[in-house]
């Protein structure tokens, strides 16, 4: 079957992966569909430049790889395949704390710009060790997940009695007795989080992290302008507007709906990124028009990885790149700086011209 868009990988992957269905999950997608374009015409678009600089690192496009846990559950090569695909595409990969490959193993796949997603464990020595290892392995930034003091009620995990298969471990915690996830009556992951992840996590910990590493810290999981302002005061180098793939608190807004409020609150002081619901190049354009400096994709990577391994992830990144380039051309934008708020219209705006009664 010839795959022509990212969502087609989902159908193939669904045969191999458990399913989920929550309101915010659908809303992450649907909210994009309600944003319309205002394309500009008769502009010479023979040359399109999609390159951008993220925290000082030049990448080929504003499309990056979000952290997704336990990728070897999707494919035997797991994070290795994803790292190689992201590197080949000239973009950034974010490695999950709960990866089935360690920071050192991912670094060993070759050159590439990589960020490390961090959960803060109750044992701060473990966190310190992990951050130092990531830094030593050449990782360039930390994406600190702040929306998971407790795991959301993931009904599909409970139904599936989710746990890691016996042949896999959370590689970054091997040898610390934290790499294993035990069987549980409901979700093994929920029990693991309850036992290990620190619920007391607060803004002072964001400041503490800066004392143990020179890597810039992105705060991942911001959905309001208020928190965006506090994040900047706490020293965040950037913000990722995220609702954790809609798996934490249901009925939070879609990330694309929360994006503009966060961007306005930051007043351009730090870059704002988005994850959640991006399946098309048109989605990437809409996010940038609303002020994002770039987007991260999670599920499309896992779906394509499950379907076709490294080749699948490469193809997803290429398809999104091609679609985004075409969207730019058809909107009359030759570079990312030319993408403006005027190129889209959203449902929450007042109509530009009220009809005469």
TrEMBL record:
Residues 1-349 form the FMN hydroxy acid dehydrogenase domain. One of its GO terms (biological process) is hydrogen peroxide biosynthetic process. GO terms for molecular function: (S)-2-hydroxy-acid oxidase activity; FMN binding. Keywords: Flavoprotein, FMN, Glycolate pathway, Oxidoreductase, Peroxisome, Photorespiration. The keyword Oxidoreductase applies. Its main location: other. Pathway: Photosynthesis; photorespiration; glycine from 2-phosphoglycolate: step 2/3. SUPFAM superfamilies: FMN-linked oxidoreductases. The keyword Iron does not apply. It is found in: Peroxisome. The active site is at residue 244. It catalyses: glycolate + O2 = glyoxylate + H2O2. Its cofactor is FMN. Its EC number is 1.1.3.15. Homotetramer. Belongs to the FMN-dependent alpha-hydroxy acid dehydrogenase family. This is (S)-2-hydroxy-acid oxidase.
């Amino acid at each position: 079957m010839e795959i022509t868009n990212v969502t087609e990988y989902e159908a193939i992957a669904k045969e191999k992966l458990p399913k989920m269905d929550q309101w915010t999950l659908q809303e992450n997608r649907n909210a994009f569909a309600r944003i319309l374009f205002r394309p500009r015409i008769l502009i010479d678009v023979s040359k399109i430049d999609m390159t951008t600089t993220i925290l000082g690192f030049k990448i080929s496009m504003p499309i990056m790889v979000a952290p997704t846990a336990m990728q070897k559950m999707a494919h035997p090569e797991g994070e290795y395949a994803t790292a190689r695909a992201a590197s080949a595409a000239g973009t950034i990969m974010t490695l999950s704390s709960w990866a089935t490959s360690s920071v050192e193993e991912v670094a060993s796949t070759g050159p590439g710009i990589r960020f490390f997603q961090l959960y803060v464990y109750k044992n701060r020595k473990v966190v310190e060790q992990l951050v130092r290892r990531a830094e030593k392995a050449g990782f360039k930034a930390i994406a600190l997940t702040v929306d998971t003091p407790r795991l959301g009620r993931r009904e599909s995990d409970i139904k599936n009695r989710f746990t890691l298969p016996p042949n896999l471990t959370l590689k970054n915690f091997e040898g610390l007795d934290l790499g294993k996830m035990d069987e549980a009556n409901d979700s093994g992951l929920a029990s693991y989080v309850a036992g290990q992840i620190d619920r007391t996590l607060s803004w002072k910990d964001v400041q503490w992290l800066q004392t143990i590493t020179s890597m810039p810290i992105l705060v991942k999981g911001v959905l309001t302008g208020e928190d965006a302002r506090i994040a900047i005061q706490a020293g965040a180098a950037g913000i990722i507007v995220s609702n954790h793939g809609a798996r934490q608190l249901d009925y939070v807004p879609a990330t694309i709906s929360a994006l503009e409020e966060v961007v306005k609150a930051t007043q351009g002081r730090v870059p704002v990124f988005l994850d959640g619901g991006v399946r098309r190049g048109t989605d990437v354009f809409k996010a940038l028009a609303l002020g994002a400096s770039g987007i991260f994709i999670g599920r499309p990577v896992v779906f394509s990885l499950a379907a076709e391994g490294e080749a699948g992830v490469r193809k997803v990144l290429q398809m999104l790149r091609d679609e985004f380039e075409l969207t730019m051309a058809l909107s009359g934008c030759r570079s990312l700086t030319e993408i403006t708020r005027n190129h889209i219209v959203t449902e929450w705006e007042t109509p530009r011209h009220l009809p005469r009664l």
